[in-house]
Structures are given as C-alpha cells and as structure tokens.
Amino acid sequence: MEDSDLLKVRKDKIEALTASGVEAYPNDAKVTHLSAELHAAFGQMDNEALEKVTERFAIAGRVMAIRNFGKGAFIAIQDRKGRIQAFIRKDRLGDELFALFKTIDVGDIVHLAGRVIKTRTGELTVEAEGLRLLTKCLRPLPEKWHGLTDVEIRYRQRYLDLVVNPKVKDVFEARSRIIRFIRTFLHDRDFLEVETPMMQPMAGGAMAKPFKTHHNALGQDLYLRIAPELYLKRLVVGGMERVFELNRNFRNEGVSTLHNPEFTMIEFYMAYATYEDLMTLTEEMITSLVRDLFGTLKIAYQGTELDFTPPWRRVSVREALVRYAGLDPAALDDRGGALREAAKRGLLFEDREPLGKILMAIFDETVEEKLIQPTFVTGYPLEVSPLSRKNTQNPEIVDRFELYIHGREIANAFSELNDPADQKNRFLMQLEQREAGDEEAHGMDEDYIRALEYGMPPTAGEGIGIDRLVMLLTDSPSIRDVILFPHLRRREAGEQKAEGENVGG
After folding, report:
1. 354-363, 384-393, 438-447, 496-505: lowest mean pLDDT where?
2. Are the beta carbons of 89 and 95 closer than 8 angstroms?
3. Alpha-carbon span 158 to 145, nearest angstrom
4. First-to-last CA distance in the chain?
C-alpha cells in the first residue's frame, strides 16, 4: 500500500474506535514500571520463581513489532529505558479488549497491565490482562529490515530517528552525562554558573562573522553572540572570580561535519590563574571524564586509538610549523618568506595580511590534521589573539593555548589581557583589519574598555567546544550526529513530500 493509503486506513481506525466509545487519545494512564526495571528485577528468575510473584505491573510504550498467531500475539514494547515483550491472549483479555488489540499497529503507543512470565525461549514477558490504546501512530515506521538509513531524513526527522535507531539515543544520553560531569567538575572547584546575553549590541569575544537581527522597541541592531567572553570577564571585574557559562554560540559560517552555525560551548574564567594553570585543569577535567565514561584512558575514535594518559604533549606554533608542515625556519620571522611558503601550499593573501595570520593559515591547512593525540599548542601570534595577554619574554606572541585531538580544535584558552590601554590598541588593530575587508575582525567595544579601567585581576579563561568533545567520546563522525536538531538547508514542498514517502514501509 502507498503511504497515503495507510494513513487513511489508520485514520479510519481512529474514527471507528471513537464511534464505538473508545477514547482515541486518553491522558490518564499510570505507569508503575519501566522495561529495564522489570528486566533487572525478574530477568534472572525462572518460571517457577515467577509463579510466586503476584504483583501486577503497568507499562507503556511504543509497539515496535507484532507477531500474530490467531488467538494470541507477541508484541515488543519500547519505552525510554529499552524494550520488553508482551504476550496477548484472547482468553486473558476478553473479547472486547482483544478486538481493540486487533486495531493496534506497529508504531502505536499502548498501555499494558499484567504479570511477568518467561516464554519457552526464556524471554521475560508481560502477560497482558489489560490493554489501552494511548496514541495512534498514523504514519508507518520505516521498514523493519532497512530501517531509517538516509542521513538527511534522520537529521530532519530526529523524532523518527530516535524511535527506530536505539543507538542514537545512547549518543544523546552520553552527551547529557558529559555535560553533567563538566558542570560538577567546575562546581566542585568553586566556579559559579551564570548566564549572559544571547543578543548583544556588539558582536565580540571571538573572531567570527555574526548573525544580525533588529530589535523594534529599542530601534537598534543586535547580534547573536559569537562568544560570551567579554560579558564573563565583566563579571570577573565585578568580583565574581570564578565563573562559567554553558550555552549556545552562533557563527555565520559554513556547515560541515565539524561546523554547525549554532553550537554549544562552555567558557570559564579563573582569577589569579594563568593559561598554564588552565592546561593543568583541562588535562585533569578531560582525563577524569574519559575515565568516568570508559574506565580507561585509551579509547577508539573512528578506528584510531586515542591515548589520554597525562601528561599531554605540548608544542608551540613555531615548532609545529617546522616539525609538521616542513616550514623553512627562516620564514617564521620573515613575511616575504612566509608568503612564499604559503604559496607553495596553494594559499594566497592580500598585501596587507600580517605575518601572524599567514603563519596561522599555513598551520590550519597543514598542521591541524596531524595533531592526533591530545596536544596543547602554545605561542600564538599576537595578530590572531586580540584578547590575550602578551608573553613577557616575547611580545610578538601571547600566553595562549589551543587543545587539539584527532586533528580538531577542542579548546581555546589564554591568560586574559587586562591592560585597558593595550586592549584598546588591539581593538584599533582589529578595526584596521576590518577596514581592509576582514569581516571576522573584532570591533571596538568601548564599554569593555571602561570595565577594564576599573580593574580586572590577573585572569585566565577558556572555551571548550562541547559538540566536538561529544563527537570524540561517542565515536561520532559528524557534528550533526551529536546535535539533536542540526541546521540543514530548507527543502522545497516537493522534496518534503518525497521525504515523507521514503521513510515508511
């Protein structure tokens, strides 16, 4: 049958049930047990032991399979903790409820009550003595043997993906556990969780292209935040010496397996600390997290073993360019030489591009992918670090690190720039780059300068990309696999209709 015909058949069933006095969508069902609780309590018992269990159990969930055999049937019920089998018998239910069962389809949500037994094959089963239809599934679930494999449909119809692909739910349960662990880790170290504006009068805190909107009542443009950094550091100025925020950022950039325009980050700031202190803290946080999840510090990601055993490798940008990119050491301090090295790798720049940006472009193109094991990269050029403190020994670089794992940036941290005069000069330098055509250059934030003029203690801050971290720890190849509703290009009406027709079976 075509999906449209099946839809009509199921709608007709609802009309017939309603006409017979059966409520189609009741909302008074009570559940006493979940599938996993029954398996845990009775899964090891044999039928002789189960005969002594007089308690009746009420369960509810989605029907995932039906095996009919005349006056009886086995059905698989799926709830939030797993699946359990139920046994339907006409002589147990009676004629009226058995007739109701005959209207049940795969995908329907039902309520069952009964005792637990074991089948001949040893499967724990609820022998139904009561049955209610709670919700009719009007559209057929994907065909049993092929399932929902089209990734586009999986991402667009995540609700269906979760129903038919149990491992998808495991990923998001792991994501929740990871976030909970990080929150607890910081709370235990006296960090305070705060919230800062999602809509900001000036996009700042990172070098990225923002999303722009307009507030009618205020009569002004606002920007979805690209980072909470400048607001969190304002709180440090105000005496909140250890703060963090775990929330969404928005960057008007490309979409790929590693990028979603709306993504989750945690940023935290710690007064009287340096970027080196945060390297130690980050190493401790992630190794503790990995051990909590896996019981070991060696895990596999997409077929590659990752070893989180500390201490993690540390390398400067300059060392990495020579070691991994084969860069001529002389080009590290010579703009012309750096341009020639970039050209060899197919990278071309405008005449005004500073040396630091050229070197980092070469780094991004040739070094990142080679940083497989957890690696702290330090010594970033001043030109690409407008909010970082200058290194005391070498003012051409800043006190900053980025953490790379499996060729991906996972974290970015630095000792914060708290000299208001230096910060203003950095903003002015960024404005020059913006005027030269760099849409990602940082703007001038006069209020932030004013805040620094009241005095911010020596501080270190860090941002960790939650989505990328979850990818690593759930062995997920794409960022879309760890975001419940990733952004996708909108489909036209005809494509949407075809999509709906392709998921059933």
Report:
1. 496-505
2. no
3. 19
4. 9
Please give the single-letter amino acid code of residue 45. Answer: M
Interatomic CA distance for residues 423 and 453, integer angstroms: 10
Query: Residue ranges per domain, the chain?
Result: 3-140, 166-312+373-481
478 burial type by CB count under 10 A (0-12 exposed, 13-18 middle, 19+ buried): middle
Q: Which residue, 104, 101, 102, 61, is CA-closest to 85?
A: 61
What is the rounded CA–CA span in Å between residue 165 and residue 158?
10
d(CA 67, CA 248): 45
Which residue did the predictor score with more confidence, 501 or 389? 389
The structure tokens 């709670």 sit at: 134
Q: What is the DSSP letter of 333?
A: G
Rounded CA separation 260/470 (Å): 14
Closest residue by Cα to residue 438 from 202, 208, 205, 201: 208
Residue 409 falls in which region: left (phi positive, over 0), alpha (psi -120 to 50) or beta: beta
Q: Which long-range contacts (CB under 8 A, 24 or more apart) does 259-263 make?
A: 259/479, 260/467, 260/479, 260/480, 260/483, 260/486, 260/487, 261/211, 261/487, 262/487, 263/465, 263/466, 263/467, 263/479, 263/483
Handedness of CA 226, 171, 152, 157 (dihedral sign): negative
- Give the span between the Cα atoms of 418 and 233, in whole angstroms: 9
Smallest CA-to-CA distance from 322 within 336, 334, 332 is with: 332
289/298 Cα distance (integer angstroms):
12
- Token pair recorded at residue 36: 């996993």
How far is residue 404's CA from residue 374's CA, in Å, rounded to a whole number? 6
CATH for 3-140 (1.10.1200.10, 3.30.450.40, 2.40.50.140, 1.10.260.40): 2.40.50.140
Q: What does the pLDDT look like over 117-153, one tens digit per residue? A: 999 999 999 999 999 999 999 999 887 545 566 788 8
Torsion, Cα 211 212 216 219, to 10 degrees, reads: 140
- Cα dihedral sign for 409, 398, 270, 238? negative
How many CB atoms sit inside 10 A of residue 389's CB? 22
Q: In the CATH hierarchy, which top-level class contains the domain 166-312+373-481?
A: alpha beta
Structural tokens at position 410: 């996972």
